[in-house]
Amino acid sequence: MNISVLRRLSLLFTLLCVSAVVTHPGAALAKGTKPPAAEVPAGTAAASAAADEHAASTPASSDDDSSDEATNQRGRLDWDSPIRVRHRHHWQHHEDGSVVSIGHSGHLESGQKADAVVSIFGSSTSDGEAEDVVSVIGDTRVTGPVSDNAVAVLGGTYVDSKVDGDVVAVMGNVELGPNAEVGGDVVAVMGAVKRDPGAVVHGSVQRIIDIDMGGLPGFNWLNTWVKHCLIYGRPLAFAPGLGWAWTLALGLLAFYACLALMFRDGIDQCVRTLESRPGHTALAALIGILLTPVLLILLCVTLIGVAAVPFVVAALFCMSLFGKAVMLAWLGGRISGRRPGPGGHPAVAVLIGGAVVLLLYVVPIVGFLVYKLLGFFGFGAVFYTLVLRVRERRAANGSSASPGSPTSPPPSAATMAGPGWT
């Protein structure tokens, strides 16, 4: 990978920093522009007019000090006005500023101008005049003139107009329409370049790790999940385009039921630990979570322990999955009452608890809260059950090692006879 390609890949971070500076409330003052007069409060406008009259009525001999003071007062009033607060809470600004969208798509309509069109977890569409058009986890579509670059990260880039800079797509395809004219380079990282015969590229066309993403759904599924789930603080939602999320959730539920079928005794022991010692379970979960990074760091420091890191991570992952099954079995058992017979099997309880949890996952904020609580207490139940089993084994080994203790069973005849009698 040459230096020019690295420069193209680092372009995204520069554009994001520039857009953050451009959308800052003080950017308009730095550029010498002033807010619209319609948004200035009445009190502020009156004070500014009074300051102008005071500056006009001041004699010429002292106009330097008076005009400076009036100008400072007028600038201070404009800066302290509610315009700054309103601009701070609007993520989109269309008048020679930037169109910034987080969690949804951004669109610059035809006939409008903007310094940049930036969308994070969304797609950027520019039909007007813009300097930069950037999408992070989304597609970039440009049909209007762009004076700088058009970039898409984890998405595709479509251009059907003049772009003076570069056209970049990371893990996506670049498509150039018949009216496309690119003044710089066209770079596709892990994607293909589809070019119309009428498209003009003055620079070079670079394809890094050539993979055609045309047959794949791209990352629109992730944008849909962010829009309908992440923004509302829930793992699932009843919305089109989230069929993959429900398929994954139902697949995991079936996997937890299989764990309950294969490891019924383990599930029952962890459920009893959770019900009998909930405080110790929570404390064990907290200690385990805090000690996990310390353990991994200590293993990485030693040369021999580095080989054990993948196994430790895999063990923790398995404990988390088993803990989810434990929590679903506990919740389903509380609902069904643990009837005797096949209906009281942990697998049935897992299915009942899983159905309730899936419904809770749809509730905003509550969904993520339930998800984290299930993982926290499930990990603690498995971890503390393992600790109790280790203690029991140590106690059993200690009692068997001291035959004279009152709790140890009396020695059998075969033991007293010794090996010579066998």
Description:
The chain is an alpha/beta fold. Helix content is 52%, strand content 15%. Strands 1-3-5-7-10-13-16 form a 7-stranded parallel β-sheet, covered by helices on one side. The protein has a 6-stranded parallel β-sheet with strand order 2-4-6-8-11-14, with no helix packed on it. A 3-stranded parallel β-sheet has the order 9-12-15, with no helix packed on it. Helix 12 crosses helix 14. It is elongated and about 85 Å long. The termini are far apart.
Q: What labels would you give this structure?
A:
6-stranded parallel β-sheet; 15% strand; alpha/beta; 7-stranded parallel β-sheet; 422 residues; 16 strands
Q: How many strands?
A: 16
Mean pLDDT: 75
Rg calculated over all Cα atoms:
33 Å
Shape: elongated
Portion in strands? 15-25%
Number of helices: 15
The helical percent reads 40-55%
* Classification by helices and strands: alpha/beta
Main β-sheet description: 7 strands, parallel
Q: How are the strands of the biggest sheet laid out side by side?
A: 1-3-5-7-10-13-16
What is the terminal separation in angstroms?
76 Å
Please mark out the parts with pLDDT under 50 across 5 or more consecutive residues, or reply none: 12-51, 53-95, 213-217, 410-422
Write the layout of secondary structure elements.
Elements (H helix, E strand, L loop, with lengths): L2 H7 L1 H12 L4 H4 L11 H15 L6 H18 L2 H7 L8 E5 L3 E3 L4 E8 L3 E3 L2 E8 L3 E3 L3 E8 L3 E3 L2 E2 L3 E4 L3 E3 L4 E2 L3 E4 L3 E3 L4 E2 L3 E4 L11 H11 L12 H20 L1 H13 L1 H24 L1 H4 L2 H28 L9 H16 L4 H36 L11 H5 L5
Parallel strand pairs: 1-3, 2-4, 3-5, 4-6, 5-7, 6-8, 7-10, 8-11, 9-12, 10-13, 11-14, 12-15, 13-16
